[in-house]
Amino acid sequence: MTNITTRATELLKESYGDNSAFREGQLEAIQAIMKKEKTLVIQKTGWGKSIVYFIATKLLREQGSGPAIIISPLLALMHNQIEAAAKLGLNVVTINSNNRDEWDEIYANLQQTDAVIVSPEKLSSPDFIEALTNLRDIELIVVDEAHSISDWGHDFRPDYQRIVRLLKTLPDSIAVLGTTATANDRVIEDIKAQLGHDLNVFRGDLMRHNISIQVNPVQSKAERLAFVTDALTHHPFLSAQQGIIYCLTKRECEDVTTFIQQHDISCEAYYSGVQNALGESIEQEVLERFHTGQTRVIVATVKLGMGYDKANIGFVIHYQLPQNLISYYQQIGRAGRNGKPALAILLHGDEDEEIIKSFIDSAYKDPSLLSDILKLIANYPKGLSRNEILQHFNLNVTKLSSVLKYLFVHEYIYMDKRKYVINPNETFDERASKKLQQQLNDTRIAELDNLKRFVNYDGCYMQYIANELDAPDLKEKCGICKHCKGRTFIPTREDNPYLEQATAYKNKLHGEIEPRKRHANNKKLDEALRYMPGWTYTTDPYSPIGKRFMAERANQHYSEKTMITISNFLAEHIQTHQIDTIVPVPNKRYPALVNELAQYIAREHGLNYVEALDKTRPGHIQSDMHNSIMQEQNITDTLALNESVEITDKNILLIDSIVNSRWTMTVAASLLLQQANAVYPFALVNVGG
């Protein structure tokens, strides 16, 4: 082992300077890899886990081994890893969705590369598996963010189960290295159960002694916007730093970004699928501008949470609660990776818990549902497509896709000619699945409860997190958080100069209602039966005015203040589009609510008020219908045109209290347009995601 130690130290100094030295545990982990041991490294962010596997890769290549295979979850992380590898003179390639044009060339030259970085999703690609099979002398497989292997991990990903299956097909002579900053005792035991109980665990201290945590009291969204803008503009530390603001949803990322940009702060939104005005993906461009310092602040979902490595991030602000404490630790770990002081500010509001609970619900894999889907597919020897399966279940497309992926990764089903087919070699155990899923769901709820306790905690914040992670150094206090220091780093100002603007901004998040172009079965919707683009007063049900609208809806009566607000908002639209008639969407549960509002608007603007639509029977609550097929059918079955009224050639304002899937507006408009000239939909609140 002396030669390995000497050579590893030489490589470190050649790459990082003569004064460089291994941190505690790095050299030991490299030695374990060289002995072909299964190894799990649990170290805090910024510790240098990539140094371990890249130096090990270099050593193995010098001994004649084939390329290392590094499985990494995020494009952002791949970018960082290639930069780190270059310091050691390693030729590293990545295979991902952004470089499809290069795949053939990469596959042809894999044997000459030092390492290949792939996402776990690529392990389902026949082309990649074939290329992997043809590689000679592979001696190292790295699983980055290894907590994702475990169902119990805070960021479990079904695709990581493919790694476990892959490793079982490889010889024991191949070294396996897993790395993570976020594995508590339960996750470690689960990883051992999957990778082998001979797993060599290197676990270091997890306390971050350069990140000062502050948790604010509950604030409205407007108060949080004002707080963030004031801090980024005037606080001596934050105003001079680059940083990340985390939000729970894509829409919130956009809303926060727009307001901050209005105050001359360099800021961009980053999330999966972010596009420019032309509809082109700009994920990489946004990340590159932040990485090079062109953009000062990036407002992101958790897509930027895991593994992103930029040394000089000075702050992380959570605009909303994270999903759990371990995710929070992962995300604040983006800050202060250069060892310099950094701030982590946690903001939160009343609506956050509801959003997180919706995430927990969507992650739950109901065993009876899994069993029913398998039974359905089993009845079709040639298989079923996703949309064919969707017709049988009250699920949205995202949920069904998640369930099918779970069944596919666990090999209960397979794909044949784009159809899901039963795998006769695997048997689904509904009872065992029910026990596991219930345990997982209970754990997620317990994690949420623990997060709520953390928000109200009056001791050392970092110590509280370390306890959640079962960290070796949990007895220490960080000494630099809000409670350890006994002071608030960025106070909330009662005279915040941005509060009035933020409130006005949140109250004027008007939106558009775009027409659907196809039926739920994907057949083209007759253009003559499509409504014109319409409007919503607010896209945020949690904004001050959104909360008021929703409360009044629940009480089945809109106040005079609301009626005046809506009437004034619609005035220009009514005039511009020569609207002459207003039609309320009928609702048996709220029979007078929209009708009274429509009558008021009709009087104010001299419109014809016509109850041109009849609700033939109550039907299901539309929000309980979770996919387009059932949403469209639910309205089609319960709505009819009132033949006794005259709307021929009218320009109609079709009004409802809320809009979500747009199917109510779509079906209602198609009925009206059998006679009317044009239909413009309007709803007070867009409650969609």
Automatic annotation (TrEMBL):
Catalysed reactions, as listed in the record: Couples ATP hydrolysis with the unwinding of duplex DNA by translocating in the 3'-5' direction
Entries under PROSITE patterns matching the protein: HELICASE_ATP_BIND_1 (PS51192), HELICASE_CTER (PS51194)
GO molecular function: DNA helicase activity; hydrolase activity
Domain Helicase C-terminal: 230-381
SMART domains, per the entry: DEXDc, HELICc
Residue intervals of the Helicase ATP-binding domain: 30-201
E.C. code: 5.6.2.4
Keywords: ATP-binding, DNA-binding, Helicase, Hydrolase, Isomerase, Nucleotide-binding
Alphabetized InterPro entries for the sequence: DEAD/DEAH_box_helicase_dom (IPR011545), DNA_helicase_ATP-dep_RecQ (IPR004589), Helicase_ATP-bd (IPR014001), Helicase_C-like (IPR001650), P-loop_NTPase (IPR027417), PRTase-like (IPR029057)
Superkingdom assignment: Bacteria
Family named by the database record: Belongs to the helicase family. RecQ subfamily.
UniProt protein name: DNA 3'-5' helicase
Higher taxonomy: Bacteria, Bacillati, Bacillota, Bacilli, Bacillales
